[in-house]
Amino acid sequence: MNQRFLSLNVKLISVTLQPFFKLKRMFSLFYSSDAFRAVRYRDFRYFLGYRFFMTMATLMQSVIVSWHMYFLTKNVLWLGMIGLAEVVPQISISLFAGHYVDLWDKKKIIRSTTFLLLIGSALLTTYSIESFHSYERLGIWPIFITIFLTGLSRGILMPANTAVLGQLVDKAHYANAATWNSANWQVAAVMGPAVGGLIYGFSSITVAYSTVFVLYLVSLVMVSRLEIKKLVSTFNKMEEDIFSRIREGISFVRKSPELMGAFSLDMFAVLFGGAVALLPVYAADILHVGPEGLGFLRACPAVGAIIMSVFLMFYPPEKNSGRTLLLAVAAFGLCMIGFAFSRYFWLSGLLLLLSGLFDSVSVVIRGTILQLYTPEHMRGRVGSVNSIFIGSSNELGAFESGVTAKLMGLVPSVAFGGIMTLVVVAVTYRINPVLRKLTLK
Q1: What is the largest CA-CA distance in the chain?
Q2: Is residue 228 part of a domain?
Q3: What DSSP designation does 169 have?
């Protein structure tokens, strides 16, 4: 009787768990596909975790600081100064950072710089405890000190992260790693501002800054878990001075048609084609959707980028990569032209989503080119040049959008930017046959 009862129990448990085992087998088959090649590396998983929490914390802090600054000063001029206080130190230190990234322990550089972000976050948290009293005694200097530290950190971390990424996975998996890295950043870029706004809105400024501090702390733990192989140096560190080595990095990019073409395409596409800086005007005066619609429009490019990143995990752009890159940037320009003339909210959102799709293709291909065509001992310096292209194009792109909108009008300025993007693609196609014929596989 007991044996029969035990047998029935075993059968019942087996039937109950059967769907679970099927689900486990399906997940194992899914995980074993080529789309997950890069994330099978333990250290790459820690790197993704570090990048996710660090990016999320940085963008959360950016949103919270903007709101906090306006709450204290009621002066829009100070909001513009925040961007300047961040971009100037980033660009100023980037080339020097690339030099030292190639010479020093990359893990220590990333860990120390992340600790610097943690200090800035702690400063803001302390400052916010009695916001008005702190403002009366200290003014807004603590905010600007933190933003300055953030700019310095970005100038160091961008080349350092570029250099480290190539050491975490095998060369054959660079495209897959670049895709995961891009998708990871985009998800953090969507979640960071959203979570920051919700916490600030439903709680308090101190809780919001404290959350940023915790996220930076988690990212610091993640990067501390990395085990990065130490490379044997093939050159004498004392042979050249710092400026000679910086010139060497710049010269290498300039003489490499693959790198120069990819960097230039990205820079000019953002410089001329980006309409993000003008979205508030479109939301208010063209589409009449208010702040809620603006938030939706701002999220659309990131959502598109995430969708495309998932697709590229399974279908990496390794064949005819140069032509794909040129077509993606051209399609991005066409999306901007369509957005300029759209008067329908749903159509504008769709075009922004498509622009994110095509931009994601560009980001993944450029990231793969950067890893494949840069020697190991120069990744820091080449990464620093890339960070200047990216950093300057975002801020200069916002400036260009504002100036052309003032001179030409809102709609013509956005359309002009899209047309100029197409011109840049056509010129690159004509003068850079190496990039045009590039295949990464």
Answers
A1: 92
A2: no
A3: S
Q: Based on C-alpha coordinates, what's the Rg of the chain?
A: 24
* Percentage of residues in the chain having pLDDT higher than 90: 7
Q: 70 pLDDT band (50/70/90 cuts)?
A: low
101 pLDDT above the threshold of 60: yes
What's the full length of the chain, in residues? 441
Do residues 172 and 76 both lie within one domain? yes
Per-residue confidence at 417, pLDDT binned at 50, 70, 90? confident
Domain, as residue range, for 142: 35-223
Q: Residue 43 and residue 23: Cα distance in Å, rounded?
A: 27
Whose tokens are 């042979």? That residue is 239
Distance of CA 402 to the CA centre of its chain: 23
pLDDT tens-digit readout, 334-348: 998 999 898 888 998
* 8 A C-beta contact, residue 370 and residue 396: no
Alpha carbon distances (Å) from 376 to 165, 187, 210, 250, 371: 11, 29, 38, 15, 9
Cβ proximity of 196 and 205 under 8 Å: no
Q: Specify if 10 maps to a domain.
A: no
Do 264 and 407 fall within a single domain?
yes
Higher pLDDT, 5 or 101: 101
- Residue 13 falls inside a structural domain: no
Q: What is the pTM of this model?
A: 0.71
Residues 245, 308, single domain; the answer is: yes
CATH code of the domain covering residue 291? 1.20.1250.20
Contact 305, 359 (CB under 8 A): yes
Residues 366 and 217 occupy one common structural domain? no
Q: What is the DSSP letter of 284?
A: I
53 pLDDT tier (thresholds 50, 70, 90): very high
Residue 212 and residue 87 in one domain: yes
Please answer whether residues 415 and 337 qualify as being in contact, where contact means their C-beta atoms are separated by less than 8 angstroms.
yes
Q: Are 341 and 332 in contact (CB under 8 A)?
A: no
Please report whether residue 11 resides in a domain.
no
Q: By the 8 A CB rule, do 390 and 363 touch?
A: no
Residue 30, pLDDT above cutoff 60: no
